[in-house]
Write a structure and sequence with these properties.
Structural class: alpha/beta
Largest sheet: 8 strands, parallel, barrel
Strand order of the largest sheet: 1-2-3-4-5-6-7-8
Number of domains: 1
Radius of gyration: 18 Å
Helix content: 40-55%
Order of helices and strands: EHEHEHEHEHHEHEHEHHHHH
CATH superfamily: Aldolase class I
CATH architecture: Alpha-Beta Barrel
Strand content: 5-15%
CATH topology: TIM Barrel
CATH class: Alpha Beta
Shape: globular
């Protein structure tokens, strides 16, 4: 479990102007975040636009990042969706050599009840060759994984080792932390909630912001792990406006605009996502300039 304690980064998937994957930029960003001190990388998550990648592209991205990381930090692969059997098929078919864990988002669109969520994750747990982190983000899925369901999975499935919590419901998150097994990880899925969740007993963050500012995000988390919350707050407060801009017109539109302004990748997304508006882009460019 220690592999996934600290700062994780939900890495973007850069695209060229023709919408093909920009592996050169992906390599740059991978090196950038590792040199910035992140503890692990999450590939092909929401921020990585996994829902627009084909199976072949997912394997290509995973293989490339595995080679680029070269065991410098652990690697988590996003393998989730709203078809349980298809997730199981992916777990069997993908070459997961060099991958250390799986992040699996709650089913979206179907809106299963808590019994369905429980059985969904039990099925994934049974078939996964790697530790599983469940991902609760009801703002995207319209489906909340309750604290009771999370704790049932935490206590009942040995290889479900944590949850990325992005519900924004601190009462729910604290109930999970209170009732979880000792080694079960509760990871912030929202950059704004990193400090509150860690102060309540959480173990870190899977960050969007860390794509651009990995060193500062790592500092926030490292201070929080040592209960140095005053120092953590001082850094966090400097990024409040930037975090607002990150999500002003959706993720990963915001972070790709920031990375483009930092010359780390092109500002390209795949439909149905589009780049941020000119007004927001101007504010993002000014924010990047102000930090140089």
């Amino acid at each position: 479990m220690k592999k996934f304690r600290g700062t994780g980064v939900a890495i973007v998937t850069p695209f060229k102007n023709d919408s093909s994957i920009d592996f050169s930029a992906l390599g740059r960003i991978t090196d950038h975040v590792i040199k910035g001190g992140v503890n692990y990388i999450v590939a092909m998550g929401t921020t990585g636009e996994a829902s627009t990648l084909t199976k072949d592209e997912k394997q290509a991205v995973l293989s490339f990042i595995t080679e680029s990381v070269d065991k410098r930090v652990p690697l988590v692969a996003g393998i989730g969706g709203n078809n349980t059997q298809e997730i199981i098929n992916c777990l069997k078919e993908l070459d997961l050599t060099g991958v250390d864990g799986i992040l699996s988002v709650a089913p979206y669109y179907n809106k299963p009840g808590q019994k369905g969520l429980l059985q969904h994750y039990k099925a994934i747990s049974t078939c996964s060759p790697l530790p599983v982190i469940i991902y609760n983000v009801p703002g995207r899925t319209s489906c909340n994984i309750s604290s009771e369901t999370t704790l049932s999975l935490a206590h009942g499935c040995d290889n479900i080792i944590g949850i990325k919590e992005a519900s924004g419901d601190m009462a729910q998150i604290m109930r999970i932390i209170k009732g979880k097994p000792e080694n079960f990880l509760v990871i912030s899925g929202d950059d704004l909630f990193t400090i509150p969740i860690m102060a309540a007993g959480g173990s870190g963050v899977i960050s969007v912001l860390a794509n651009a500012w990995p060193a500062e995000c790592s500092e926030i988390v490292n201070h929080s792990l040592k209960n140095n919350y005053r120092q953590a707050r001082e850094i966090q407060f400097k990024f409040l406006e930037i975090i607002d801009l990150l999500f002003a017109e959706g993720n990963p539109s915001g972070i790709k605009a920031f990375l483009s302004a930092m010359n780390l990748c092109r500002n390209n997304l795949r439909l149905p996502l589009v780049p941020v508006s000119k007004a927001v882009l101007t504010r993002i460019q000014k924010a990047v300039e102000s930090r140089r």
